[in-house]
């Protein structure tokens, strides 16, 4: 079907939108103390969560014309009796240690989603809207889903990095991992997609330290906490170098940062390097993949280091 072709094109392209952690050519201002800013941002987020509500009543009793989109509003006037987000049983608090600082982010899991959930290194197809705490919308793709690569990777040609693809900001990456994708979709006569109504729906509230911090973006001042509401439509397990090992398994030190794992120290991270140990034998030829998809990390010389990471074992 044509739509599958379009989805594949989108996946390869990994279009760049506001959630990208791309700070090229941006003007920075003096950097504040991250710990102090984390405290200030957390108070701002708590104030927002205490004074705003989402359209929970529509989700609890959806009408035939309900679009299943998250909407926020202030608790005031005719909305003075609404339940604030901070009191919702669907709100999760997550502590994220980033650049040595513990920071609080908040995840509103309205619907978990029945499909696969992404890891920190996978690819996702989502609709989303990003706004500031004052309600200013800085990006909106709610009508046009986009692909996001959650972690960075490099495109390598002839052993040389040809280009680098950025991941997304830390808070966005952390938040999406709580949500599953749709179980499937149908293609309408006009070639538009109708998603099965079981995809993940939610919102994340993140401090500036897990966003752009001191780097301003279009419509986003420096040190701005951010709010994203989104639908998780597809999650794809990424293998960026096509070596048979999913990218999340190439995070050898377990810090959920694939950019600093480079076994052969050739300047190409393992998740982008088709020959992780640099012995001339492709990684794909130094592992085995069983019929059920299980990866067998062979260790021919029984030295405790799998062949694909052992430069002393090669063909």
Q: How are the SSEs ordered, and which strands pair?
A:
Elements: H1 2-13, H2 34-51, E1 52-54, H3 56-60, E2 72-74, E3 91-98, E4 101-111, E5 123-132, E6 137-140, E7 146-149, E8 153-157, E9 160-165, H4 170-176, E10 185-187, E11 193-195, E12 200-206, E13 226-236, E14 288-289, E15 295-296
Antiparallel strand pairs: 1-2, 3-4, 4-12, 5-6, 5-7, 5-13, 8-9, 10-11, 12-13, 14-15
What does this 3D model show about the protein?
This protein has 315 residues and is an alpha+beta fold. The protein has 2 domains: 2-236, Chitinase A, domain 3 (Roll); 240-315, no CATH class. Helices cover 13% and strands 26% of the residues. The protein has helices at residues 2-13, 34-51, 56-60, 170-176, and strands at 52-54, 72-74, 91-98, 101-111, 123-132, 137-140, 146-149, 153-157, 160-165, 185-187, 193-195, 200-206, 226-236, 288-289, 295-296. A hairpin with a 2-residue loop joins strand 8 (153-157) and strand 9 (160-165). The longest helix has 18 residues, at 34-51. Mean pLDDT is 91; it is low at 1-18.
């Amino acid at each position: 079907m044509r739509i599958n072709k379009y989805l594949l094109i989108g996946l390869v392209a990994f279009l760049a939108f506001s959630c990208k952690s791309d700070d090229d050519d941006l003007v920075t201002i003096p950097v504040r103390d991250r710990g102090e800013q984390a405290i200030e941002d957390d108070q701002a987020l708590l104030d927002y969560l205490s004074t705003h509500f989402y359209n929970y009543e529509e989700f609890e009793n959806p009408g035939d014309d309900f679009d299943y989109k998250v909407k926020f509003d202030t608790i005031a006037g005719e909305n003075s009796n609404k339940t604030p987000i901070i009191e919702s049983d669907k709100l999760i608090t997550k502590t994220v240690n980033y650049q040595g600082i513990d920071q609080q982010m908040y995840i509103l899991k309205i619907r978990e989603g029945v499909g696969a959930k992404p890891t920190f290194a996978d690819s996702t197809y989502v609709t989303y809207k990003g706004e500031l705490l004052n309600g200013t919308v800085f990006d909106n793709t709610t009508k046009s889903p986009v692909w996001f690569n959650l972690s960075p990777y490099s495109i390598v040609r002839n052993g040389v990095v040809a280009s680098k693809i950025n991941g997304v900001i830390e808070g966005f990456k952390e938040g999406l991992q709580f949500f599953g994708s749709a179980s499937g979709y149908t293609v309408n006569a006009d070639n538009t997609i109708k998603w099965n109504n079981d995809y993940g729906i939610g919102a994340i509230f993140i401090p500036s330290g897990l966003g752009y911090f001191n780097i301003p973006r279009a419509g986003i001042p420096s040190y701005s906490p951010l709010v994203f509401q989104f639908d998780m439509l597809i999650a794809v397990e990424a293998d960026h170098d096509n070596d048979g090992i999913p990218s999340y398994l190439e995070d050898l030190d377990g810090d959920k940062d694939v950019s600093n794992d480079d076994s052969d120290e050739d300047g190409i991270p393992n998740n982008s390097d088709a020959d992780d140990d640099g012995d001339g034998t492709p990684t794909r030829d130094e592992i085995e993949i069983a019929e059920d998809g299980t990866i067998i990390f062979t260790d021919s010389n029984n030295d405790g280091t799998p062949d694909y990471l052992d430069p002393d074992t090669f063909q």
